[in-house]
Amino acid sequence: MRVWLITTVLLKPLHFVQNRIDAWVMARVRRQSGPITVARGRVYILPTRFGYAFALMLLAMLLGAMNYSNSMAFLLTFLLAGLGLVCMHHTHANLVNIQLRAGSCAPVFAGDIAHFEVRIDNPSAHPRYALALSWPKAEKQAITADVPARGSITLVLSLPTQHRGWLPAGVFSVSTEYPLGLFHAWTWAELDMRCLVFPRPAPGGIVPPATVGTNGLASGERSGQDEFAGLRSYRRGDAPRSIHWKSFPKLTHPVVKQFAETLEQELWLDWVALPWLDTEARLSQLTRWVLDAEAAQRSYGLRLPGRVIAPGRGDAHRIECLRALALYEDAQP
């Protein structure tokens, strides 16, 4: 208990100073489209807890060497101190001149995890080791990787989502404690990245009412091979393979097999079909209907106040409808 109290009292001023430094620096970080080159003046460095312990150990060794006038103790103390200074130089240089580029971010539904891709390029001829990406105050969840010489890697930052619409990535840090963990060097960056968050789909159970669209199927007489519809008299131009040869000996004239193609009627998903729900609940239910219609391979359209999306289907059509639902308020006056 005493050790914990002493440690807390000693480290609290250090945490306070670091928090003030972080706040001062982050207030000056500007959102950029990239690439962002980490200049030498943008890299900040402080000792880690192991670095402070290492410095206290060197101080104790120095006092012991002075007390006993031991030259070997002086030599070891200064050797370790020089090692610490070299370590500080390598830790700082491990971040200098790397480049940060914005990657892609696939759309997600509200409540899911958004994944922002960040590409790190190393233009130098020396590898960069143990580079870590993390959100502010989330260093324990940092993603660490090495970047080869004149190479690049892509790391993914995860961020929980709560609301639909555009979710900006925000400020993140790139840090390193290479090579010995005595110093923590970091820089702040904010790339022009954002993730489109779709409304959370409502639970299943409510189906589009008949007034919203036609849910049945119709049969047409377009050329097709879906469903046998009967026989008809032969007409000039009919393909020989369509003749019903089995009935030819029994009839005085040839007949042709006729097929009816099953035609799916369009389904309209309409905002006004859900008058008892509030805005967010309507958007969630419309999202559910879009997903269900796409899973059933139905042709569907979407009607929203101020916007109508013509019927269709497929991934591009689904994304267009979900995007309209996600940005619904943005289209309102």
UniProtKB/TrEMBL annotation:
Record's protein name: Uncharacterized conserved protein, DUF58 family, contains vWF domain
Keywords from the UniProt entry: Membrane, Transmembrane, Transmembrane helix
Presence of keyword Transmembrane: yes
Transmembrane intervals: 43-65
Taxonomy, superkingdom: Bacteria
